[in-house]
Amino acid sequence: MSLIAPILSLMPHRGDLHLLRPELPEELEDLPSTAEGEWRRLSESEVWQAQRGFFHHQGVGAWSKGTVPHYITTNPALARAYAQVVIGYWRDWQRDAMGGGEEPFYILELGAGSGRFGYMFLRALLELRQRSPLASLPFCYILSDFTESNLQFWQSHRSLQPFVEQGVLDFALFDAEKDGEVRLRRAGRTLEPARLARPLVAIANYVFDSIPHDAFAVKDGQLHECLFSHGGLALDGKNPEWFQEVLPEFRSRPIDPAYYPEPGFNALLASYASRLGNSTFLFEVAALRCLDRLRRLTGDRLLVLSADKGYVDEESLQGLGEPHLEGHGSFSLAVNFHAIGAHVAASGGRALFGGHPRSSINICAFLNGAPPGGYVECELAFHEHVVRAGPDDTYTVRRGAEAHYESMTTVQLLSLIRLTRDDPRVVRDCLPALMEKVEEADASLKKEVATVVRRAWDNHYPIGEERDLAFEVGLLMVRAGLHEEALFYFNASLELCGAASATLWNVGMCHLALGRFDEAVARLRRARELDAHVIPLNAFRPNKESSPP
Ligand SMILES: C[S@@+](CC[C@H](N)C(=O)[O-])C[C@H]1O[C@@H](n2cnc3c(N)ncnc32)[C@H](O)[C@@H]1O
After folding, report:
1. Mutate to test the pocket of ligand 1, among 67, 110, 145 (most ligand atoms within 8 A of CB)
2. Count of other CB atoms within 10 angstroms of residue 543
């Protein structure tokens, strides 16, 4: 194996932020034997408790205020790619007509945060299932998190209600650091070891990077633990800026080979000691234990899909400097997917890795147990929808196109929205360009704009952001002269963001344009009651025969 120097351009990052220190590897200072008690194993540091405090207290605000990055793991391109892989997985298990009767296939999303990924995934999965030979296959998606704050948010979210009513969505408190069973809040039943009739899919996006890790250094073939100090301050995560107070520092000291109670973990550490040159590496102790518990729960029939920034091969673990805790409200560490893959392989399973050297996000599948015919469909779907060209490529192309929306044609902008699998964020970002161009489009292109934008709107899962996307899209439809369509969006804006005079005004003007005088007068009057000086913003240019009362 060649020992290569770290290649800075290979460094994974969360969004645009590099996660590892860009300096060349430096020796970690050894811990003096007289050191104070504040030095702990990283996984036992108080920062993890504070992290939990942050998510608990912030609830959905962690995402709606844009504090915690989440776009790259909660977009329709990723959701659809996962849905393709899950359909492939089910087809592999169904090929041999396994039993299970009416029991659903369960999909458990860990650390589901705002619920936005689950929403997009369910939409994609329902569509694909309908078009596949599995149209009547029963399944249930479980949104889970360790904190009740997120469950409360999902249970009251109107976009999720139709899935609940169809019986394809349930909710659960599931702590990835300790739970081995899943209690379904709606169904009132508990998924327990040896009681699951069918294999389980678990989804973990930006979760393994947020639960306890340990850190190690290899120095001349000898394994050291990297003990961690956060600077000694009392932390509880209540203050959303809490992580800025943390003063992370590492010191190393040699360790015994029997470091963990799990012999498999120690074997993996020993293999790193013998194969990595001088380097540091992270070890996902909480994620590995979580996977072991899920394997026990499912009788070793488990598919885990995970997206995170991290390392997938041993080469990229060579020559790394001190581990870096990246702060963004919460904090995260690059995930050592290589170690997770090696652990899964040691238990008889296998790992599939997506991505390429400059990936913004790594997408991995970990498979334990296998149907008699093997994972033909699942692997094909993973290859086609993740490896060959996948959500990471969609993300990169979108980033590149962003600066050129103004110079792209309407047809090109619509193609981009389709390529991103109907991404409402792309619609939002393209709006100024579409506004500029749509008036010049012919009638059939205007209709196409409405169709494509509506599909993306259907993927919109509001989490309380300040921007009123429905209102803005309504304005676009007015520009296109599609007043019925515009009414749909202005009414959505009233439902989501409350009665605002400008929105009511625009609703009135649309009715007027559609010849519905009474409806128009009622809305325009109401708008004036709310704001005597309401003006139609840039919503509407009344034509000669339509004038406000
Ligand atoms: C960085 S966020 C990722 C959220 C979402 N999956 C995404 O991609 O945007 C980490 C999530 O993990 C959850 N989490 C933290 N510790 C957890 C634990 N021990 N068990 C389960 N979830 C946990 C947090 O509440 C939060 O929802």
Report:
1. 145
2. 9
- Of the CA atoms within 13 Å of residue 217, those in its CB half-sphere come to 26
> Which DSSP helix (H) or strand (E) runs through 436?
helix 424-438
Tokens of 125: 């999965």
Q: How far apart are CA 549 and CA 534, in angstroms?
A: 13
pLDDT in tens, 272-304: 999 998 999 999 999 999 999 999 999 999 999
For the chain, list the domains and their CATH numbers: 403-530 (1.25.40.10)
Of 306, 356, 358, nearest in space to 336 by CA: 306
CA–CA separation, 285 and 270 (whole Å): 15
Cα(458)–Cα(416) distance, integer angstroms = 17
Query: Quick check: CB of 206 below 6 Å from ligand 1?
Result: yes
64: number of Cβ within 10 Å? 18
The C-alpha atoms of residue 95 and residue 377 are separated, in whole angstroms, by: 10
Residue 138 CA to residue 121 CA, distance in Å, equals 16
Q: How far is the C-alpha of 472 from the C-alpha of 486, rounded, in Å?
A: 10
C-beta of 333 in contact with ligand 1 (< 6 A): no
The pLDDT tens digits of the residues spanning 440-492 come to: 999 999 999 999 999 999 999 999 998 999 999 999 999 999 999 999 999 99
Mean pLDDT computed over every residue of the chain: 90
Q: Write the residue with the smallest CA distance to atom 17 of ligand 1.
A: 146
